[in-house]
Design brief:
It comes from Neolewinella lacunae. GO terms for molecular function: cytosine transmembrane transporter activity. By secondary structure, the chain is mainly α. The protein has one domain: Hydantoin permease (Orthogonal Bundle), CATH 1.10.4160. α4 runs antiparallel to α12 and α15 crosses α16.
């Protein structure tokens, strides 16, 4: 026992406390409470203030929104529990180190750059969301739905200040990120509930029928948006976090879990955040759409602004501002933490603290461009589609490598830095379905699952062919 404790302490010192290239030792495993707060905070968060209103701009109906979200979020929870958490507690490695063992050091670097940068862009959109709240007391001009560039020096200054604080929290490591989420999440959840009830009162809702009629049979999408049906809502809500669950990014989080059952805690994020909070935020936007200002904008052929700060402030005052700021932080913090781990593989001699600061800097720069927040539905679909198929390689190898007759962690075993089976499996699946989406103008999220399945199958087929000479 003493020897085991000494070994764990050695590993902890060696890995700087974050175990980027070592399995997490038993002394650092965490109970389900750590994950419950983190997922509730991360997903009842800044993205929710954007996504809820954006569903309305896509003209969803009541049935499509309420039932589509119910089922789509269930599929997401099942993906986390039976894929991500299951593999995480078996290996207890980050996504990046696990992938390195399979694909080799050279190939994994390209993935890590793409992964880290995309996570930074997502975190940047949340910095923009927080900035819309901080800017309310200063009379900041809010970014419009079709804005791409920053709209003034005040917006730039607020984004930089918010980004600096978020980066410092994320750079202090998983424990700090988890503690921050546990502290902030109850406040954010309370704010979403308050916003929802206030909005219902402002809309004159007195019965379930009144509530249902807010969306009714849906409407035509706003200018510049596409029409969302039931299947758009279900598939998009399932794969809104595709990179985290079927894409295996949350191996980096659940490697700290005592048991795979911790994966069920993601339900707190999905049903408090991606269900209750999305609907509450949509109600806030529904109130705004009834205002003379919004009606005038619509009459002019444009989409009314989707700025979370003013929407929440109009409902619950300064408490709404605080909630939006915290909501942006609780999404950006773990996202920047994940991006820092990705960059760590490229800069192994640099401490986790400083690579996370680098990730936070990239995210802050991204936050200066409102398009990442205002086009969040499309961006989330794209980044999940890019990253999810890589997770299929880990999943299919973990569950099927014996049946397929291939060697697990082949690059590590063979001492190679480039495993062509990984590259070709991803490139073919990504290229084929992206081309189909572009050619036939099909919603990209509809192809995430087919691309994921094809990538996993191709990896097994190519591995069986290309491993054979070296494994003999």
């Amino acid at each position: 026992m003493l020897q085991n404790i000494q070994e764990e302490q050695y590993l902890e010192n060696l890995a700087g406390g974050e175990f980027e290239r070592e399995p997490v030792p038993a002394s650092r495993w965490k109970g389900w409470g750590s994950f419950l707060g983190m997922y509730a905070g991360e997903h009842a968060a800044g993205t929710e203030f954007m996504i809820g209103p954006l569903f309305l701009t896509a003209g969803v109906s009541a049935f499509d929104l309420i039932i589509g979200l119910l089922l789509g979020n269930l599929l997401a929870v099942l993906s986390w529990r039976f894929l991500t958490a299951e593999i995480a507690v078996k290996n207890r490695l980050t996504l990046y180190f696990q992938l390195e063992k399979i694909s080799g050091k050279s190939l994994v670097k390209f993935y890590n750059v793409a992964n880290g940068v995309l996570f930074c862009f997502l975190a940047g959109s949340m910095i923009t969301v927080s900035a819309t709240a901080v800017g309310v007391p200063f009379g900041m001009e809010m970014p419009a739905l079709d804005d791409t560039l920053p709209n003034g020096p005040l917006f730039i200054g607020i984004v930089i200040a918010v980004g600096a604080v978020i980066a410092l929290i994320a750079a202090r490591g998983y424990d700090t990120v988890s503690r921050a989420a546990n502290w902030m999440s109850p406040i954010i959840v309370l704010a979403f509930l308050a916003c929802g009830f206030v909005a219902l009162g402002q809309l004159g809702v007195g019965s379930l029928r009144d509530f249902w009629n807010i969306w009714g049979e849906g409407s035509a999408p706003f200018p510049g948006q596409i029409k969302y049906t039931f299947w758009h809502v279900l598939i998009w809500s399932w794969f809104a976090n595709a990179a985290m669950h079927v894409g295996m990014s949350d191996l980096s989080v659940f490697r700290f879990a005592k048991r795979a059952s911790a994966g069920w805690t993601t339900a707190a994020g999905m049903y408090v955040g991606h269900y209750m909070a999305w609907i509450a935020a949509a109600l806030l936007y529904a109130v705004y759409l009834q205002s003379p200002e919004a009606q005038a904008i619509l009459a002019g052929g444009k989409a009314p602004d989707v700025a979370p700060g003013p929407l929440a402030y109009n409902a619950i005052g300064f408490f709404g501002i605080i909630a939006v700021v915290l909501a942006g932080w609780t999404t950006a913090n773990p996202t920047i933490y994940r991006a820092g781990l990705a960059f760590q593989t490229l800069l192994p001699k640099v401490s986790t603290f400083w690579v996370t600061i680098i990730a936070g800097t990239v995210a802050t720069v991204a936050g200066l461009f409102p398009a990442f927040a205002m086009k969040l539905l499309g961006f989330v679909a794209l980044y999940g589609f890019i990253l999810a198929p890589v997770g299929a390689i880990i999943v299919f190898e973990h569950f099927f490598y014996r049946r397929a007759g291939i060697r697990k962690n082949y690059a590590e075993w063979a001492g190679i830095s480039f495993n062509p089976a990984v590259l070709w499996a991803w490139a073919i699946s990504f290229g084929l379905f992206y081309a189909l989406s572009w050619q036939f103008d099909v919603f990209l999220s509809f192809f995430t699952l087919p691309a994921w399945l094809l990538c996993g199958v191709l990896y097994l087929v190519f591995s069986r062919r290309w491993q054979k000479p070296l494994a003999a």
